[in-house]
Amino acid sequence: MDMRFWLLQIFNGVSYGALLFLLGSGLSLIFGVMRIVNLAHGSFFLLGGYVALTVIWTTGSWLLAIPVAVLVIAALGMVMERFFLRPLGGDHLRQVLLTFGFVLLFQQGALDIWGGDNLTINPPRTLSHSLIVGSLYLPLYRVFIIGVAAVIGLVLWLALDRTRAGATVRATVDDAQMARGIGIDTSRVSTLTFGLGALLAGLGGVIGGGFLGIYPGLGFEILPLAFAVVIIGGMGSLGGAAIGAVVVGLLDNFGKVLFPQAAYFTLYAPLVLLLAARPTGLFGRE
Amino acid sequence: MSRPLKMLSVTALLLAVVVVTPHTTPFLLMLATRIMILAILAMSLDLLLGFTGIASLGHAAFLGLGAYLTAILAVRYHFGLGWDFWLVVFFGILLGAVTAALFAVFALRARGVYFLMITLALSQCVWGLAYRWDSLTGGDNGLNLPSRPVFGTIQLGNDTAYFYLVFAFFALSLLLLYVFVESPLGRSLVGIREHETRMRILGYNVWLHKYIAFIVSGAFAGLAGVLWAHVSSEVSPEDVTLTTSVDALLMVVLGGPGTLVGGVLGAVIVLFLREYLSTLVPWWPYVLGGMYVAIISYLPDGLLAIGARWRRAPAVAAASVAGSAQGPTRSNKLEINQGGIE
Fold first, then answer.
1. How many other CB atoms are found less than 10 A from the CB of residue B196?
2. Contact assignment for B128 to A268 by CB distance below 8 Å
3. Hey, CA dihedral for A275, B189, B37, B152, is it positive or negative?
4. What is the pLDDT of residues B194-236, one digit of tens each?
5. Band of the pLDDT at B315, cuts 50, 70, 90?
6. A93 pLDDT exceeds 50?
7. Strand partners of residue A138
8. Chain B residue with minimal CA distance to A230?
9. DSSP code of residue B327
10. Which DSSP string corresponds to B32-65?
């Protein structure tokens, strides 16, 4: 195991982490604003990939597939929040279980529309080359994923930190009751945040479909990893989600390479210890 | 319904099940067997969710531990296929209880939604081992058990015999859990569910109460795992996934938390839809998903509460006519303890 091996594995871990950031940041935002553990988040990821496939099949354009898929999933998320989750009030457990009811509906819907085969989203030819850095061959597509995650992360950070809309979201995360008190329409914030979270998951699905493939069980396979990101980062914290995503990406990758028999144990056991020590995550607040 | 009437009707129903089911089809017999095993799991979870007010998103871990213990002993050591099966039952319960005792040390540090997350992470640890430690667990393929236990002339390989065995465990679990929740300890658990701070002020050791509830719950879930391993004679990582944990939660919530029999009703509905309706129509998941959404949206206290809801409706209407500002006093059993969240 020479230097190249380690560098390549770090690169793989970080690029997987970049994908998990797209998924985890949305989940974290939804949690921060609404305190909902959204079990349908993996389904948003999966449906994003499927919708993108349909667009590619009909128009042949991968570039068009991204905005269409992302907006469809965002709309789906907002409808779900507005008409099903909100009427439950603040009952978190029922909201969690309701999202699972939707998982079943989405899964079967996807199976009926797109079938049970393992499909792949082929990215444009220019992205399927390799980048040669020193003696390392790095798949350009994975570099692209890291770039997308970095840009999205930056945009989200600027939007949350520098705009008025971002300030209302942060106020709602910090103290929803107080935010309502000073005239912030927190239920609108909730709907928009849920839509934004779904959008990010859908984007993750389109991009992740390029190297994970798109198949029926994917949504529930990737969901616990997204939770891991949120657990490490603390819920509602964007910077935390970024760090959490890289940590989970690396733990997952190195766990599989170095301890194949205990791969997921090496990922979740540290999580348990972290949660026991700091139940709100590294960067989360009570 | 008064309490003696309730107990009488549950007993009558149980008798009807044990007398009638063996005379129906082999398919229904196996379905009833599965339902009773998952009902034990659901009841054990109800002890936490419905009676103590803490929602675990990782109950599949205990089912999985019991099932894998049984399968590993049978496949690798040929243990538990004769009279020694009773030792496996004992070990399964013990493993569930000991693991729960360990898990609870970590899990009970978190509250509310964070409790959901930490129990999820704990059960993912068990899933990870089941999925990847293939030299012990068979990995993705799982393990196939050679046969069901044989006690002298009684062969549990016969589905009817196995049905009776599972029925006995199911009825015993229901009875024991009922005695437990009706005991002073069980009543103080309900007290913690309703108002944790008040119980603490009254001098109850809230942490210890929750800890005991978690261990008892884990023990019964471990028992369900042992029985589950022999149902289809195979154990796979699928049994330990998040889906199984959520299924168990839904069973409790569908039937009615805090009732024990609610979990049984939930298990009947979920498995009946999944295994029976699936043989009739291909679109059965829509029915299942749609029913989850409908019941959670419109019946917050579960199906068993329908009767109570009807009876309460006129009273609530009268109260609001009288201008009472109190509103309907619904003790929402589903609300998770939120002491530390907000």
1. 22
2. yes
3. positive
4. 888 888 888 888 899 999 999 999 999 999 999 999 998 889 9
5. low
6. yes
7. A131
8. B117
9. -
10. HHHHHHHHHHHHHHHIIIIII----S-THHHHHH
Angstrom distance (rounded) from CA A203 to CA A49: 8
> With b meaning 16 or more CB within 10 Å and e meaning fewer, what string describes B249-264?
bbbbbbbbbbbbbbbb
Tokens 């390989």, residue? B157
Q: What are B92-120's pLDDT values in tens digits?
A: 999 999 999 999 998 988 887 788 888 98
Residue B128, CB half-sphere, CA atoms under 13 Å: how many? 24
Closest residue of chain B to A280, computed from CA coordinates: B114
DSSP-based three-state secondary structure for A61: coil
Q: Which of B245, B278, B292, B337 to mutate to test the interface with A (most CBs of A within 10 A)?
A: B292
Residues of B in contact with A96 (CB under 8 A): 57, 116
pLDDT digits 0-9 by tens, B127-162: 988 988 888 888 888 888 888 888 888 888 888 899
> For residue range A214-226, what is the model confidence (pLDDT) as tens digits?
988 888 888 888 9
Residues of A in contact with B132 (CB under 8 A): 260-265
- The two tokens of residue A22 are 């797209």
DSSP code for A88:
G
- By DSSP bridging, strand A130-133 and strand A136-139 are antiparallel
How many beta carbons lie within 10 A of that of residue B38, not counting itself? Answer: 26
Asked whether the beta carbons of B237 and B140 are under 8 A apart, the reply is yes
Q: What's the ipTM?
A: 0.85
Q: Which residue has the tokens 């520098």?
A: A162
Mutation site for A-interface testing, chosen from B49, B126, B132, B295 by largest number of A Cβ within 10 Å: B132
The first and second tokens of residue A119, run together, are: 């499909």
How many whole angstroms from its chain centre is CA A92? Answer: 21
Do the bridges between strand B150-151 and strand B143-144 make them parallel or antiparallel, or are there none, so unpaired? Answer: unpaired
B112, B336 Cβ separation under 8 angstroms: yes
Question: For residue B323, what pLDDT is reported?
Answer: 41
B135, A261: Cβ pair inside 8 Å? yes
Please tell me the distance from the alpha carbon of residue B337 to that of residue B112, in angstroms, as a whole number.
Answer: 6
How far are the Cα atoms of A42, A231, A242, B90, B339 from residue A276, in angstroms, in the given order? 25, 11, 21, 30, 17
Work out the end-to-end distance of chain B between its first and last CA atoms, rounded to an integer number of angstroms: 38
